[in-house]
Amino acid sequence: MPVRFDVVIVGGGISGLVAARKAAQQGKSVCVVEASDRFGGAIQGQILDGVTVDVGAEAFAIARPETLDLIKALGLGDRVVAPRRSDSRLIVPQGIFPMPHALLGIPTNPLADDVVAIIGIEEATKAAHLDELPVPESWDPQITLGALIRQRLGDQITDYIATPVVGGVHALHPDLAEAEAIMPGITAATTKHGGLSKAAAAIRSSSGVPGAAVNGLAGGMSNLVDALVQELQETQNVELVLSSPVTDVSRNQSAGHIGWEVRTATQKFVGDRVVVALDAKNAARVLTSVPLIHQPLSRLYVGDVVVFAALISSNLLDEDPLGSGALIAPSTPKVHAKAITHASAKWEWVRTAFGPSRHVVRLSYGRDGVINENLDDLARIAHADLELLLGASMPAFDETHLARWTGSLLHPRVGHRANVAELKAAAATTDGLSLAIAGLAGNGLAGTVSQAHAAIS
Hints:
Blueprint: E1 3-10, H1 14-25, E2 30-33, E3 45-48, E4 51-54, E5 60-61, H2 66-73, E6 80-81, E7 89-92, E8 95-98, E9 102-103, E10 106-107, H3 113-131, H4 145-153, H5 155-170, H6 179-182, H7 186-193, H8 196-205, E11 214-217, H9 222-233, E12 238-241, E13 246-254, E14 257-264, E15 268-276, H10 280-286, H11 291-298, E16 301-313, E17 325-328, E18 339-342, H12 343-346, H13 348-354, E19 358-365, H14 378-390, E20 399-411, H15 416-428, E21 433-435, H16 445-455
Helix pairs in contact: 1-9, 1-16, 3-5, 4-5, 7-8, 10-11, 11-15
């Protein structure tokens, strides 16, 4: 016999856990069905030499309040910490440079010293002149971010500033990203302010805090998952199920009661409402029986990312030669990684936990949705990348951990907004089904938390 609940949630990542929490607070009976052997999705802690460090999401943006509100509600407010340093670098074929003042790689002033240092005064002057040209009154609604930046600021800024930034943040080349999907309002702002750089400056200054400003949790973001799971375990009428991949979500009608049925290989769960809190690829897989939802979901692009975390003993890293980390242009010779975070430089709690001359670094791999590196050889690749980035021979890693995030990033490629609009319209007319698709509200915790709340009416 299937087990009946008011709400069945498919997926035990942050979206699923937050949706379960809200449903339970409303007095509903809830079941969370998770495919893997742990909860938390893209938030994961891993023990390196006795210390738990983040190998997934390590921070949350503070420009929006949703994540901080949740953290405080779970009693973790005293663990919130600002970065020890947040001075990331840009690594391009020309060398290593401080990150220019920009909005997702769009400089707020193409003639600023930090831009000139990278592309030279001649190219910077060309970029400034381009952005002074008349701005169209209307734009191709599917123009890519790369095409927009090339049109207004030229190839040099696109290739050596925007590309490593967008690639590092979204694992996607700006020439593939739909501008209005990845940066809503950017074309209208360009027209309004008479230039792309002016639009970037206006958008950045419109918030009380920079969009890139983040906080973390002392002891790691995995504390957020632990607190959510503990609260749910202590709540009546909540069941948490691990190691149970869902095979199908479909309508259920039994004894005159219409609801939804969630199937695994061995179990059935029936709910008045079902929340699908998965990545787009897996959501499409389990919703084949609902074609109006399945079809737009199956057209969304997702990408794979690998995070290689390593503990290394070296006094060379004591002075934080890469600042808090770096974003790396794909044209940088011989380097495979798209980004590196020096966690011991970025977070004081990590530095203190491991002590002098012991450092945690995280290197990220996967561009445009594809991981080209041989994962069996990734330790060697990561070590070679670290030596190239530092320009020095380095000792062997003390401990390592490889975390692969399959389909973890939703890629806003051309046509993305049309697919999302179709998906949302279909979901709005499908009674009892809510979607909390990873990345659909943006690749960040604030959007994830907001979307999870909205899934529980």
